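I have been asked to look over a protein record a colleague put together. Alongside the sequence sits a line of tokens, each denoting a local backbone shape. I have pasted the whole thing underneath without changing anything:
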Amino acid sequence: MFFIKPRGYKSRLERTDQLLPICPRPALLPRRYFDTEASPLQTARKAETAEEFLKWLRTAPAGTLVVYSDGSQLPNGSGSGRLGPAEVFDAEATGALEGLRAAIRLAETATSSIIVCTDNLAVATCLQGNPADSSQDKFTEFQGLTRAHGDVQIRWIPGHANIPSNDEADGLAKAGCLQPEPPGAMPSLAHLRRLARQQPKDAFHTWWAVEAPVSYRPLDLEATTSCPLELTLSRATLHNLLAARSRHGDFSDYHERFDHDDASLDCSCGRRKTPEHPFYCRKIPPRLRMRLIPSPAEAIHHAVGKGFKAFVAMTSECSFFQRICPRH
């Protein structure tokens, strides 16, 4: 008999799994294929679609039940209807299902036509096709009720297009956000996916706020994992900009600190080389000089930080680092 000693540590996968709460696990469903190609949900622009829908609504057969479904979300992330931690996509799917249930209960006959209208094209596509992983149980139940009833159609209508009933549904969805969260509500898969994308970004920004070099903090530069605009500059121009930001470059203090005996410590104007010198050098033509407002420190920090294009334009047009203040 063998005994496996429990590990005293957790793997990276196990630690990653603990970063997010659990959610309903979607089932692996086979893809649905249809003998006939479904007509597209959107065939015209929003204004034309809204006008066409209102025209159809005026001539709809008597006894037709029209369901307007909508979902909303507060800026703080509260879901609609009121759901737990969820996205608008989940709220729209739940609203469509609840609307269909109500319509079936209100139908005068078992064959009454029911038209389910939603302004979310992605939800409408999943309602009549392959269910999405998030809120999968809502889509599958909706499709089951559709098959059982027989005469249910899904129609996409544009939002905020002066369709009175849809605007009313939008207002009710916003009001539903203010209701208390149901006890024991689990987050949706779409919500967890958004959290999984946002958490690394938040962690990166938190790290930058703590670990940013002291010389960079007054510049108010934001950390990014994408390609910054500075990398579109030429190598020589980028070198001068990064030197001004880090204060490591062709500057008098830098050369003296590292005993660079052959370095030129002064600009051709006679002043010592400093990161701030381009903003004070008298050899730069007055028309190119930057106005140091509201204060010299703020203006310089902005010019070598987020407003680096002005710094690049000034130093490039007068060839500052080539003619006025060369390295040697």
Summary: The chain has a mean pLDDT of 89.
